[in-house]
Design goal:
Blueprint lengths: L6 E4 L3 H13 L4 E4 L2 H10 L4 E5 L7 H10 L5 E6 L4 H9 L4 E4 L4 H26 L2 E2 L2 E2 L3 H14 L5 E4 L6 H10 L8 E5 L5 H9 E2 L11 E2 L1 H4 L4 E5 L6 H13 L1 E3 L6 E3 L3 E6 L3 H6 L5 H7 L2 E4 L9 H17 L5 E2 L1 H9 L5 H15 L4 E2 L15 E3 L6 E3 L10 H13 L8 H15 L4 H8 L3 H18 L1
Parallel strand pairs: 1-2, 1-3, 3-4, 4-5, 8-15, 8-16, 9-12, 12-15, 17-18
Antiparallel strand pairs: 6-7, 10-11, 13-14, 19-20
Helix pairs in contact: 6-7, 13-15, 16-17, 17-18, 17-19
């Protein structure tokens, strides 16, 4: 099946079959030729074709019937109609039924080859689009962005191999999820997946954690213990934060990877296991090599299949997909009724830079659900972000500026805000001194108006977070009621 040509030629005139086949062959395309509708249907049943050159006038049936069958069964094949009875009606009917193109006899070799080439490209693009549609979730991952499609394809390609995989990416991007996906999509999926965080274990105990120890090997070794390497035999060993590993242990790890053999701490018996190693770090491994903190030979031994996980801010529409998934899951877990986000909350979630990536988003959604009630999670329920990771830090690419929600109160004393407010009062011909909240309100509303109602853009220019504006709007309503 894999060696079958991608083009099926359906034509009942032997001389034309010979001509079309020679046209195709000269351009590097092999084809299968049949001379009846029945044979064509039999070939299509077997699958594997991407383009069919279909004559409408066949001895046993009308070619339109074959076209209709292709569309009804949703076969992944581009149909190019060939006929000597060209007419507007035939062309329209063929296109309505899903034909990719229409060739009128006689046609030149160039016309045929261009049509076939375009049809093949069309099918390739269609397959890519379908792949994107299908991959909204992939093992533990959520997201259909182009950035993640590349990750999914790399995992698919690497899964069957035993080659080591080196995963890089910022904290919270899902490196362990990636390692687990590699394991679950591999032939080792029915064997153990053993994760080990090299940065969370004291260096004096790290060797024992990986290779195990025998009784009496060191103080506190009251019995024999298998390490992660033995526990992962037949499966996958995931070494997270690999760049935190002590240099002396890096040497032993290199020897273990090369030979598959090791000694338990305190033992002279050589043991052998069959494992696949996947490692990860949130550092730049090459910089660690250059700084002398990571062995160069170990780096190249591990860096066989590199996977770099993009930060959440580079994943476009994935942010809201992930947030919605967390909302549904945590609402169910906490016994809450939340089912959706308000429009303002959606805008804030999409516009925030998420420096803590998926882990931060996860914590924020859970926090908001636990502390609030309702069916719609509103922007007013998101100030819990302000206390997350010390402050609601927003890394914006505004000339390298970094802003925070906790610092947004400084807007009330911000010289630019006061200047805008003063300009407003002067143009109104009054020397009235307005309450500070009104000064702030006028400044913000003026900025929103200048940005054609775009709150996110106005917030960016004011150097504050969009959630601050939405929250202040609620405060303004209360203050307006009190002063009226």
């Amino acid at each position: 099946m894999a060696d079958r040509p991608s083009i099926l030629l359906v034509e009942d005139t032997a001389s034309l079959v010979a001509v079309y086949t020679s046209y195709l062959k000269r351009s590097g395309y092999d084809s299968t030729q049949v001379m009846s509708g029945k044979e064509a249907l039999q070939e299509l049943e077997g699958g594997g074709y991407r383009v069919i050159l279909l004559d409408l006038q066949l001895p046993d049936m009308d070619g339109i019937e074959i076209l209709r069958m292709v569309q009804e069964r949703k076969l992944p094949i581009a149909v190019v109609i060939i006929t000597s009875n060209a007419s507007v009606n035939v062309a329209v009917e063929s296109m309505r039924l899903g034909a990719y193109d229409f060739l009128e006899k006689p046609f030149s070799a160039d016309r045929l080859i261009v049509t076939v080439r375009n049809a093949l490209k069309h099918m390739q693009l269609s397959e890519m689009v379908e792949a994107i549609k299908e991959r909204t979730q992939f093992y533990g991952f959520i997201g259909s962005s182009f950035a993640m499609q590349s990750i999914y394809r790399t995992i698919d390609s690497a899964a069957a191999s035993k080659a080591t995989v080196f995963i890089t990416g910022e904290s919270g991007t899902g490196k362990e999820v990636c390692a687990d996906a590699i394991h679950k999509s591999s032939p080792r999926s029915d064997k153990p997946f053993v994760p080990l965080n090299c940065g969370a274990i004291p260096k004096d105990l790290m060797e024992s954690e990986i290779f195990g120890h025998v009784k009496g090997a060191f103080t506190g070794a009251i019995g024999h213990r298998d390490g992660a390497a033995t526990q992962a035999d037949g499966g996958t060993l995931f070494l997270d934060e690999i760049c935190e590993m002590d240099l002396d242990l890096q040497t032993k790890l290199l020897r273990f990877i090369q030979s598959g053999t090791f000694h338990k701490v305190g033992s002279t018996r050589l043991e052998k296991v069959n494992i696949r190693i996947v490692c990860a770090t949130n550092r730049n491994p090459l910089q660690e090599v250059q700084a002398g903190r990571f062995r160069e030979d170990l780096y190249y031994r591990l860096h066989v299949i590199p996977i770099h996980l993009p930060p959440l801010r580079d994943r476009d529409q994935d942010i809201l997909e992930i947030a919605k998934s967390f909302l549904v899951d945590y609402a169910k877990e906490e016994g809450k009724e939340f089912t959706s986000f308000s429009a303002e909350a959606t805008e804030v979630i999409n516009s925030y830079n998420w420096p803590g990536n998926i882990r931060q988003l996860q914590n924020v959604i859970r926090n908001s659900i636990v502390l609030n009630e309702g069916k719609v999670l509103t922007v007013e329920m998101l100030p819990s972000l302000g206390n997350h990771n010390s402050s609601f830090v927003e890394h914006r690419e505004n000339g390298g500026q970094v802003t925070s929600d906790s610092a947004s109160s400084a807007l009330t004393a911000d010289a630019s805000a006061l200047y805008v407010a003063n300009q407003l009062t002067e143009t109104q011909g009054t020397t009235e001194i307005l309450p500070l909240w009104m000064v702030e309100k006028e400044a913000i509303e003026d900025a929103i108006e200048r940005c054609d109602g775009n709150v996110v853009k106005a917030a960016s220019l004011l150097n504050i977070n969009p959630s601050t504006i939405y929250r202040k709007k609620v405060q303004w309503k209360e203050l307006t009621k009190k002063t009226s």
